[in-house]
Amino acid sequence: MFLMARILKRDLLEGVSTRLHSTAIHLLRAARRDDESFGLSAARLSALSVVVFGGPLSLGSLAAAEQVRPPTMTKLVQGLERAGLVERTADPADRRVSIVHATPRGVRLLEGAQRRRVEAIAGLLAGLSLNELEVLDRAADLVSGELATGKWVSRDSQPPPGPRRRR
Fold first, then answer.
1. Which position has the higher pLDDT, 32 or 87?
2. Average model confidence (pLDDT) for the chain?
3. Contacts of 41 (CB under 8 A, 6+ apart)
4. Which of 56, 87, 100, 126 is deepest in the core (most CB within 10 A)?
5. In what order do the strands lie in the sheet with 94-102?
6. 51, 100 contact by CB (below 8 A)
């Protein structure tokens, strides 16, 4: 009986993981449909999001969080600077290191983008019953809790750099 339960759990775990992965990708794609209206590429919006919601950080840390090489992040940040959305300052502890800060304009843009995405998701879920919404709320808590433990398992056994991951 114990072996049967382990097999059932393994199969259910694989099925739920596959569906959650696919659903997360499709949900993000659907929520990003309006992002072009902000005049920034998905990569720039993503980098700006890390700076706005994660606070000032070094260019190297931003590149690591976005899983890109530092030269790629430098180009993305330069575009954000030209748009007036971020500023770079020298790290007082090490003047060779650039710290990226969101400008008030960058914060407003990102908060607006987040608000539109949340509204789009809420519109998608509006037809669900109270019970179904409570189930989704509990599922979101469970997934967030597991991510917070740092138990992420991947081919290289590295945890994700934060709540944001590239597909």
1. 87
2. 87
3. 79
4. 100
5. 57-58, 94-102, 86-91
6. yes
In angstroms, rounded to a whole number, what is the distance separating the alpha carbons of residues 40 and 106? 11
Give the percent of the chain with pLDDT over 70. Answer: 90
Report d(CA 95, CA 63) in Å as an integer. Answer: 18
CA-CA-CA-CA dihedral for 135, 140, 141, 145, to nearest 10: 140
- Any residues with CB less than 8 A from the CB of 58 and at least 6 apart, and which? 91, 97, 98, 99, 100
What is the domain partition of the chain in residue ranges? 26-127, 129-167
Q: Provide the total of helices (H) and of strands (E) in the chain, helices listed first.
A: 6, 3
Q: What is the pLDDT of residues 2-42, one digit of tens each?
A: 887 888 888 899 999 999 999 999 988 887 777 777 788 88
Which tokens is 149 given? Answer: 């433990």
The third-level CATH classification (topology) of the domain covering 26-127 is: Arc Repressor Mutant, subunit A (1.10.10)
Distance (Å, whole) CA 106 – CA 115:
14
